[in-house]
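Priority: medium. Attachment 1 of 2:
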């Protein structure tokens, strides 16, 4: 059922989406049509993907904890009434536009979607736990798990230190270590946040349950890792059919080199810029070219069609990468996203604001022909 255009404020995204999904009717709207307050973009897929990306970024910061992999935050003062509504958003986001979560620990996500009684495969628990801990801890446990000999004194001490951080009081040995890790993972990802996981699962609409009830833990595993962001996956979905001359082919090389060198955070920002989504949910990213130069030179993203338009007037790779810094060098305090529609395309715009008063810089908006001088927390527009 095509519903009304839903208007949300980018600066109040968490509250607006929670309010929007507090009513039951929205979960039956296909396609979902979103409009950002004060922005021109017409939703043909890109705006709703961006809305879900922005909403979940806020959910992660408010209600989850972790570094590389997130788990529900368990502490006094958490608004538990929001979790069933978040379950509605989770389910409808996937069914409406294919948006799925790849930052939450997979065992927790399986429990959210399929229910807390669904058994989690041991391989998923082990894999998720090694993703959850630090590189040093992961390397230490992998060395202990692969050892065919009794653990050395130093290795044994390090393993004890890691496991004790998670409340384990049993002495680890080469024989019992896999079982101890499994038990810790099951507790951290499923038992400890069980109340939150059940609340989120309870929010899945009745009309959506037939879909999820036909899915299994291996199905969610495949979906999760299919959408997890890596350089190889992003490069694999680039489509360079329009590259026909030396300048365009060189820019293609610059793009693949840049993506190959990006960390996960920058890859997610790149996908958000081009597709509106913070996961690999589109089948392809089409790369096109233009002849813009000078101050008008900038990458442009048409998020509804997942198209990246690049100038060819770059002197070298460093010159190319500098043009993308406005996308990657951002923090919550120093940027905002805007989506504007020009010539029936959707553009994702990054606006920079100074982190220190008194600093002044100029930045060319990536979706309109205007130059901005940024100084003392305000923006002056030059024609």
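Attachment 2 of 2:
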């Amino acid at each position: 059922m095509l519903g009304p255009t839903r208007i949300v404020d980018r600066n109040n995204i968490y509250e607006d989406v929670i309010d929007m999904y507090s009513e039951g009717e929205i979960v039956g709207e296909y396609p979902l049509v979103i409009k950002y307050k004060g922005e021109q973009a017409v939703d043909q897929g890109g705006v709703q993907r961006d809305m879900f990306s922005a909403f979940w970024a806020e959910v992660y910061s408010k209600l989850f904890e972790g570094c590389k992999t997130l788990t529900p935050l368990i502490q006094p003062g958490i608004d538990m009434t929001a979790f069933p509504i978040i379950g509605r958003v989770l389910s409808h986001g996937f069914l409406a536009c294919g948006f799925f979560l790849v930052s939450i620990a997979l065992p927790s996500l399986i429990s959210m979607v399929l229910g807390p009684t669904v058994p989690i495969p041991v391989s998923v628990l082990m894999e998720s736990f090694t993703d959850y801990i630090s590189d040093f801890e992961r390397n230490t446990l992998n060395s202990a798990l692969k050892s065919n000999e009794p653990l050395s004194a130093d290795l044994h001490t390090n393993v004890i230190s890691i496991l004790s951080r998670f409340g384990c009081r049993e002495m680890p040995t080469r024989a019992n270590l896999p079982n101890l890790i499994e038990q810790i993972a099951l507790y951290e990802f499923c038992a400890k946040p069980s109340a939150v996981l059940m609340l989120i699962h309870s929010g899945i609409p009745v009309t959506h349950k037939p879909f999820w009830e036909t899915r299994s833990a291996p199905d969610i595993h495949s979906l999760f890792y299919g959408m997890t962001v890596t350089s190889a996956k992003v490069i694999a979905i680039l489509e360079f059919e329009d590259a026909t001359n030396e300048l365009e082919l060189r820019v293609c090389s610059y793009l693949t080199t840049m993506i190959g060198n990006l960390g996960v955070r920058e890859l997610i920002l790149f996908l958000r810029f081009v597709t509106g989504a913070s996961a690999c949910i589109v089948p392809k990213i089409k790369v096109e070219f233009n002849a813009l130069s000078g101050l008008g030179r900038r990458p442009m993203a048409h998020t509804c069609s997942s198209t990246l338009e690049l100038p060819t007037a770059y002197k070298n790779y460093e010159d190319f990468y500098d043009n993308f810094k406005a996308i990657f060098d951002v923090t919550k305090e120093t940027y905002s996203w805007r989506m504007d529609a020009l010539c029936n395309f959707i553009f994702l715009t990054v606006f920079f604001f100074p982190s220190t008063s008194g600093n002044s810089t100029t930045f060319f908006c990536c979706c309109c022909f205007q130059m901005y001088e940024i100084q003392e927390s305000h923006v002056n527009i030059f024609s």
